[in-house]
């Protein structure tokens, strides 16, 4: 049986409310509909072959849905690794590229080995992926850091299997350290699920958050000239992906430190 989303969502909200109400804590203002929120990237390394992963998948889903941290816009990337595919179930969303990406964080955080579920916030902090307390605290911390502005705009496209976009990055010099920063684009799809028939999750109906469907680099910002970035790009979309559930996520990440300098998302045009 799938964990109750109501119970998990309530736990997240109650934790933040209790933390904010502690002695000496500032009472968070209710965000108005037009209030500006600082985008924060939350990556989840997960697998359908891992019995500990479904609660983490659900946590990411609820973080995006509820947005429980005032002043922060949580943008999720659910990245399915492939090192669980040996135990009788091949995760249809897995890719060795996401495994390689997690390995970079393993090296940064000086971890002994890769594990699932692992949640990484803005490339700066990694922890067990179902830890809602760590997630909320870390997201709040990262939302207070200087950020580059990332803007994604849709443009008319002559291709049926592609989305034409313009990506602009500004203010990176306010956040960038003395190293190159790469601009990455990911396409995510929500609403995905699998009826798992083998492995640790055999017999379970597993649901997911914003699953990464594709991932590629748009370009690089140099530390000496990080004032602006502007690129026009055709983003390929597969016909098997449900267009109404697709999002384009663009983020700027320092190449060595792996710190996220800025992130934005936009829906795919219908």
What does this structure look like?
This protein is an alpha+beta fold and 270 residues long. It is built from four helices and 13 strands. The chain has a four-stranded mixed beta sheet with strand order 2-1-3-4, sandwiched between helices. It has a four-stranded antiparallel beta sheet with strand order 10-7-12-13, with no helix packed on it. A three-stranded antiparallel beta sheet has the order 5-6-11, with no helix packed on it. Helix 1 crosses helix 2 and helix 1 crosses helix 4 (132-142). The longest helix has 16 residues, at 5-20. The protein is globular, with a radius of gyration of 18 Å. The model is unreliable at 20-34 (pLDDT under 50).
Characteristic key phrases:
270 residues; 4-stranded antiparallel β-sheet
Gist of the model:
This protein is an alpha+beta fold and 270 residues long.
